[in-house]
Design goal:
single chain, alpha/beta, Rossmann fold, Arc Repressor Mutant, subunit A, six-stranded mixed β-sheet
Length: about 325
């Protein structure tokens, strides 16, 4: 991966085998063939920039300069931001600019910047200064945005003509909760990546972590997954993964939610929680669960029957 992309991405290719990702993977060569603008939509953290990279890597422009900017930067100083991007590329010149311009978070582009981008998208030139000669710019524009952009265009918040121009070809990236079958693949990818980065052997994934990551809704999508796995790796002893190191698992909350009740009932509730945690960690292996709980195996089986715990619920693959 080039230094340009290393600044933004960990992945080099799409991860997962869900139907939505399979369809996007099939569409990449089609998107790459043309020069029409591409709009990539999805929730924050869905790695929309990766799709832009894959489209460029499979296109005739793969060796041409790539300029990556953000709507917020363009809003501040459109001219200076474009000039700054051009100066970063040794192959660029004022005689004629070629390549790909990626604009992230398009929905935040203000009215003035929308107008400037429109003249570029439709006219093929950049007017970097008020009285300067326009610069010919043969660029393909790839934009990223959330799903709200279409609503903004309908409501007049975003220039509808610019929206129609930039969305000539559109890709929608699903959220992580919409493709649960890809969650484990993402966890394993980042686990391998971060372990190699710090020189550790990749440990096996405990069933309790498997259970938690499938149960969680991942509001921050792939980016949250990346951060969560990094946290687990650096916070766990070498050769292990601690469920408690998952950022979204707050053990203290469980005790805060315990209602005032009879002590016997509260003890039974805690006992059930501890047994279930042990079974999750060892994927239903009663012998190992009993060992970590300092119980005999017959005693553990007795308690499981009493508390209504079935070992089948904790065997990998039954989730």
């Amino acid at each position: 991966m080039s230094k340009l992309w290393e600044e933004y991405l960990v992945q080099e290719d799409l991860i997962g085998h869900s139907p939505a990702i399979f369809q996007i993977r099939r569409s990449i060569p089609i998107l790459a063939k043309g020069d029409q603008p591409v709009l990539i939509t999805g929730e924050p953290g869905t790695e929309k920039l990766l799709i832009a990279k894959l489209v460029i890597d499979n296109s005739a422009r793969k060796k041409a300069p790539v300029f990556i900017t953000d709507a917020a930067k363009l809003n501040k100083t459109f001219d200076q931001e474009i000039q700054s991007l051009l100066q970063q590329q040794e192959h660029s010149s004022e005689e004629g600019l070629r390549g790909t311009l990626i604009v992230q978070n398009l929905e935040y582009l203000d009215r003035e910047s929308q107008a400037r981008l429109m003249s570029f998208a439709q006219g093929g030139y950049l007017q970097l200064q008020a009285h300067a000669e326009p610069i010919a710019a043969e660029f393909r524009i790839i934009s990223t945005a959330t799903g709200k952009l279409q609503e903004y265009a309908k409501e007049g918040i975003f220039n509808s003509e610019l929206y129609l121009t930039l969305s000539a070809m559109t890709v929608k990236l699903p959220s992580l909760r919409e493709r649960k079958q890809d969650i484990v693949a993402f966890f394993e990818f980042y686990l391998d990546y971060f372990c190699r980065k710090i020189g550790r052997t990749v440990p096996p994934m405990p069933f309790e972590i498997f259970h938690q990551i499938l149960k969680y809704s991942w509001p921050g999508n792939v980016k949250e997954m990346e951060n969560a796995v990094r946290s687990v790796v650096v916070s766990s002893p070498e050769g292990m993964l601690l469920m408690e190191a998952l950022p979204f698992v707050d053990e203290a909350e469980k005790f805060q939610r315990v209602e005032l009740q009879s002590l016997n009932r509260a003890v039974a509730q805690l006992e059930k929680e501890m047994i279930e945690r042990a079974l999750r960690r060892f994927a239903g292996n009663q012998s190992r669960a009993a060992q970590v709980l300092h119980l005999s195996e017959p005693n553990l089986r007795f308690k499981m029957k009493k508390l209504g715990i079935r070992k089948e619920e904790f065997i990998m693959g039954n989730e």
